[in-house]
């Protein structure tokens, strides 16, 4: 079997020697990842460099050659070996969600532990004891209807005992 041998070296070493590659002879510059192709008469330093790494890349649309079917709007997946194949829509693991899939709706019931000023678990957490303090209530926000009921008729609310304190029923 024939063998193709390519000259190679670092840019500085090749520039120092400045060889004249034969016509069609390839020289690989390993530290710059570039190639030079000889013409048989010009020294290495005067030859044009061919970049082995493109400086830009333009591509068009990918065309399906039939390997993944021809049905429109199928989901495409890449297998672990890198092969493109068609996936499936569904509601279980390893399937694609369609745009109208119930798993994507906001109607799902929340779950998990509540935090912050809430206690318990979702979907029915409660306000934690001591979470609401006086500073949390706006001035004039509590109505009479929200106060504790008096024990019987003919009672006034106020404070008749000495000193400041809780509201009392005055008879």
The overall strand count is 12
Give the overall pLDDT as a whole number.
Answer: 84
Strand content: 15-25%
Alpha-beta content class: mainly beta
Taking pLDDT < 50 over at least 5 consecutive residues as the criterion, the unreliable ranges are: none
Q: Kindly report the spatial arrangement of strands forming the biggest sheet.
A: 1-2-3-4
Portion of residues within helices: under 10%
- Element-level helix/strand string: EHEEEEEEEEEEE
**CATH class value of the domain at 7-51:** Mainly Beta
CATH level-two architecture of the domain at 7-51: Ribbon
Main β sheet profile = 4 strands, mixed
What gyration radius follows from the Cα positions, in whole Å?
41 Å
CATH topology of the domain at 7-51: Seminal Fluid Protein  PDC-109 (Domain B)
Q: Quick one: overall form?
A: elongated
Distance between the termini: 117 Å
Number of helices: 1
What characteristics describe this protein?
mainly beta, 1 helix
Tell me what the structure shows.
With 171 residues, this protein is mostly beta strands. It has a domain at 7-51: Seminal Fluid Protein  PDC-109 (Domain B), CATH 2.10.10. Helix content is 4%, strand content 20%. The chain has 1 helix and 12 strands. The protein has one helix at 11-17; strands at 7-9, 26-29, 34-37, 49-51, 76-78, 84-86, 112-113, 118-119, 121-122, 126-127, 156-158, 168-170. The chain has a 4-stranded mixed β-sheet. Strands 5-6 form a two-stranded antiparallel ribbon. Strands 7-9 form a two-stranded antiparallel ribbon. Strand 5 and strand 6 (84-86) form a beta hairpin. The longest helix has 7 residues, at 11-17. The radius of gyration is 41 Å and the shape is elongated. The mean pLDDT is 84.
């Amino acid at each position: 079997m024939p063998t193709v041998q390519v000259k190679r070296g670092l840019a500085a070493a090749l520039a120092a020697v400045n060889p004249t590659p034969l016509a069609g002879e390839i020289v690989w510059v390993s530290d710059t990842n570039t190639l030079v192709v000889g013409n048989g008469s010009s020294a290495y330093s005067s030859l044009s460099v061919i970049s082995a790494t493109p400086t830009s890349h333009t591509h068009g649309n990918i065309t399906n050659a039939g390997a993944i079917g021809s049905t429109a709007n199928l989901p495409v997946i890449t297998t672990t070996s890198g092969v493109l194949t068609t996936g499936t829509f569904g509601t279980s693991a390893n399937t694609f969600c369609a745009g109208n899939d119930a798993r994507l709706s906001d109607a799902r019931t929340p779950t998990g532990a509540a935090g912050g000023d809430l206690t318990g678990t979702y979907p029915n957490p409660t306000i934690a004891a001591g979470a609401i303090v006086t500073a949390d209530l706006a001035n004039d926000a509590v109505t009479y209807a929200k106060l504790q009921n008096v024990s019987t008729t003919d009672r006034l609310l106020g404070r008749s005992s000495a000193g400041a304190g809780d509201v009392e029923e005055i008879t």
